[in-house]
Amino acid sequence: MQLSDSVVLVTGGAGGLGEAAVRRVAAAGASVVIADLSDDKAEKLAADLGEKVKYVRTDVTDEASVSNAVAEAEKLGTFRYAVIAHGGFGVAEKVVGRDGSPAGLEGFTKTIDLYLTGTFNVLRIAAAAIAKTEPDGDGQRGAIAATASIAAYEGQIGQIAYSAAKAGVVGMTIVAARDLGSLGVRVVTVAPGTMRTPIMERVGEEALAKFSANVPNPRRLGKPEEYAALVQHILENPYLNGETIRLDGAQRFSPR
Q1: Considering the entire predicted model, what is its pTM?
Q2: 35 closest CA partner among 17, 61, 16, 9
Q3: By C-alpha distance, which of 60, 113, 50, 52 is closest to 82?
Q4: pLDDT tens for each residue of 179-207
Q5: CB atoms within 10 A of CB 243
Q6: Where are the domains of the chain?
Q7: Which of the residues are catalytic?
């Protein structure tokens, strides 16, 4: 299987990591569905990349919305790949605040819904569609690349909701790979460290320099293009399966 012969669905495809993935797989010749809620950015990206790239407004937490995005992907050709890279919400809150009050449940639930439930929603619907395609000579039908975070392993103070959600994505990876093995669908997760996305750049150069100092080698933030390069390799390498790959320059989060 080649990307040039296939359709790739990218959730969060108008965001920093997602956009880099869209550009990478499109450059490799794939047809791409940008599944996002950022209309202006997604429509511009699709227009920039040409007729093989289509924007489909998609809420990853909604079954009908994701099913529609997958259906649109199937219209473009042979749908074999999904990249789950959406983001957009986070809550920073300690389990017990300084005033002695417990953390709010709403922010925790919303974070889990977006990052964990949303990932599972895309995973299950995309996998069911990919499983209907014809296998290659190796019995392979396609692959799904999910996105976690190194916060899944060593979340910082105030990150309990985000860390729990991303740890859930890590935990799903091997199970999903086993569940889908008989169908010829692989599942691999990327756990990025601190990446220099457009949102991250808003903190300013001084803060970025401090973040970079915590990365052993190379001593800088990760580039979205490096995430995209790993995603492409995951999609194309048929013996990568059931694993979460850290992409972090050997960074380990400190408590703060």
Answers
A1: 0.95
A2: 9
A3: 60
A4: 999 999 999 999 999 998 887 877 888 88
A5: 15
A6: 3-247
A7: 162
